[in-house]
User: Fold Zinc finger CGNR domain-containing protein from Streptomyces adustus.
Amino acid sequence: MRAMRKTGAVEPDEHEEAQGAVTSEEGGIPVAPGADRYPALDLANSAVALPGGQVLDLLGTPAAATRWLVDHGLAPAEAELRETCAAQLRSLREQIRALVSSRVDGHPAPGSALNGLNDALTRAPAVSLLNWDATRGLHRALSHPTTRIVERALATLAADAADLLTGSDADRLTACGSPPCNRYLLRHGRRHWCSTRCGDRARAARAYARRTGTGTGTGTGTGEN
Ligand SMILES: [Zn+2]
Assistant:
């Protein structure tokens, strides 16, 4: 899981093999292009739809959600989330997914998702505040560091999502074009798959459709490589 934060720059070409080398320890799922730079994108991708109708939820339990935050540098190693906190994180995930989806599809942003994201943004300062005391003088410190871990993590993730959705990378946001995958990525060139695995599956589906003369709905038809 820690490797997810150390992913190098994505090659701007079709060589997916190098990308597939970076894997999460959670089920061997590679980090999606762009999700290494935007933790909010990684959050959006944290409930992975697998072939066969299963969902791998990396935030499915308080322990899993804690590990996700620690691995992303958003909580101290000794943190222990309660289920209500994990649920808040999953809720923010759905709001970010709704906003990313509307951005990708060119639809109006859902008001409920905007409200939820803004609520997370304003619930806690995402930065260290300026403090003064007699021994240390002026210094920066987090407010209520032990009781507001989750609020701060939510605020940081919400701010990252806002940056992603309004910055220069927003136009490259795209949904993985390999059903049933539900992940989002930052597109490079024509590639619109989140992983080697998804690219292989989309190619296999197209090849099968060609061979059998059935189906035209595989992939998006724009990344024929
Ligand atoms: Zn995918």
Residues 1-26, 217-225 have pLDDT under 50 and may be disordered. The first helix runs from residue 16 to 20. The domain at 2-7+16-212 is CATH 1.10.3300.10 (Jann2411-like fold). The chain has one domain: 2-7+16-212.
